[in-house]
Amino acid sequence: MSSLADKTVLITGASSGIGAACAIKFAGAGCRLILAARRADRLKEIATELKTETYLLQLDITSRAAVEKAVTGLPDEFRQIDVLINNAGLGRGLDKLHEGNIDGWEEMIDTNIKGLLYMSRIVIPQMVERGSGHIINIGSIAGHQVYPGGNVYCATKHAVNALTQGMRIDLVDTPVRVSTVDPGLVETEFSQVRFYGDTERAARTYRGYQPLTGDDIAEAVVWVADRPPHVQVAEVIILPTAQASALHLHKEEK
Q1: CATH architecture observed for domain 8-238
Q2: What is the pTM of this model?
């Protein structure tokens, strides 16, 4: 039986992609779930597939006040958060820095960095007080290497990497664990968001090789969370077999 059974897991960005896959995998491990995202309709669809206690939060994590209100207002049975999955994040554009969309920059910074900070700041103190808990940040290979056009997105994921290390240092005198799972190319809605709904351009991102899936990442996240209390998996980098680095990808000609 999984050591995660009956644990409460809060997942941000749970309405699609890696977040939705994590919801399904953690439900299968016997967890109760708090699913947070902006799209309430998508959360409801996912919840109908889950055979576990689930609490839905329609939440924009870029709003500090909304995050604080949502977490402090959780029902008693969901108030003890055992695992926090900071998954919500996005990319916008692949422009050169001097040609970039500043609104897109703000959106990435507010979601990928500040949203993660807001959620962590409200959840971690209860873990410290209780003497147990696990924060798992979903980073990216872009948090280790910069690629053309990635500038600000890569900077936000480098920030996630630095914040993860900082959290681990700050919590080293507690039983609370901190991990990061950093994927390479995963086929989700990420590219559609990055290219502002240009589905054809998004589809080209994944042609000619087999990308990772949300399930691939979710399996790793559950494995990280399910280690014994004395084991802290600090960092997991997951790439498709056809990807060697952020810059090196082998595509078959078709």
Answers
A1: 3-Layer(aba) Sandwich (3.40)
A2: 0.95
